[in-house]
Amino acid sequence: MKSISMGVLVAALMLPCTxxxxxxxxxxxxxxxxxxxxVITRSDRTIQAEPNLRLQEGDVVQxxxxxxxxxxxxxxxxxxxxxxxxxxxKRFMFQPNEKKLSFITRVFHGTISFLSGxxxxxxxxxxxxxxxxxxxxxxxxxxxxxxx
Length: 148
Prior knowledge:
Blueprint: H1 6-21, E1 27-35, E2 38-42, E3 45-48, E4 54-56, E5 60-63, E6 68-73, E7 78-81, E8 86-95, E9 100-115, H2 118-122, E10 127-130, E11 135-137, E12 142-147
Parallel strand pairs: 9-10
Antiparallel strand pairs: 1-4, 1-6, 2-3, 2-5, 5-8, 6-7, 7-9, 8-9, 9-12, 10-11
């Protein structure tokens, strides 16, 4: 019987995790905390949110009538969502060494708190929060938005 190298074994064990949550190359943040019903819609799939779930650009995060969630993005942006809230992480690029910075989030409804991270500090014009009524530019601050 031939022996299997440790690297091959680890890769084989991690493959199902990559299929379930996406590869590290598209990781833009994590679900830090949650309570109640919280789901992530990704490429026409619905994923039940759980702590440390890796977020990807394009994810839609939605809380139920008893749900709330805290997200932390790679640039240290903190997003907190209350009950019956929905956002889309439309665009996120954080490559400060190459000066490639962009953060665009769409708020559909609910109550959402944003504590801006490095993108808003390094490239303030590249950090935007879209609502059905207006686009808000974040200039390195704390923003509370409620959309009915």
